[in-house]
Amino acid sequence: MLLLSALISGFGLGSMYGLMALGFTMTYAVSGTVNFAQGSSMMLGAVLCFTFAQTLGWPMWLAVLLALAACALYGVLVEVLAVRPFARQGSNAWLMSTVALGIVLDNLVLHTFGKEPRNLPSPLALSSIELGGVGLGVYPLQLLIPVVGLVLAALLHTVLRRTRWGKALLAVVQNRDAARLMGIPITRAIAVAFAISTLLAGVAGVLIAPLFNVNADMGTLFGLKAFAVAILGGITSAWGVMIAGLLFGMAEALVTATLGSGYTQMISFGLVIVVLAIRPNGLFGRAQVNKV
To answer: How many CB atoms lie within 10 A of CB 192?
Structure first.
């Protein structure tokens, strides 16, 4: 029963990693860059949802919508302020500037929201699921998170591969000059990609907030793990990063349940190194072919 509970919990946690990793996939597929403030985006979604719902007393549905809208807007600001000026010059300084912007947001929230962790109540995280009269230690919300994650992964894959708008986005990174000649608004497409990226992180934050305490530092480790998942799954594959997230989350939960939390990070990240040594392009990634 303990292992079953750990697997279900890991499935939910892994789905959250996958959601955040989808954001890395989105920006990399469109612009060849990633947003290292993704963890801060997740934290922003959780903090704003708590503020709107608990502090201001607004309806939960409105709080969620406004929090996600703010996350999307934050993604546009990241692209405009921390990525676009450097990418236009062919500089990789956006690597550090996105990290710096995330740290600025973390500290801004720390000084306004406070450093005390707070709990966001949810009817889906009040009582655990029972099986045969025995509690599994798993909340209904932990089963909802994988559903949301898989649906969003399927939606993102379908939009990028099957729709005209999605193909236009992918064309931006493949050949910008050709995309521009075809009338694709390059700047707007990249900004939209970053907005979707932080929106996905915000969804993860809103979903995970009732299960973890909401605080200004909550996104740091989650963001690092999400990037590891993105690389592990093959950053160009939406399905790949989602599956990698599930595997990573379940591996974490199993290690915690069997060996204790002290070994969780050491073994889970060690496994990432081993897998990447065997599959340098990730589990579902493909090596780029350079034409000459």
So the answer is: 19
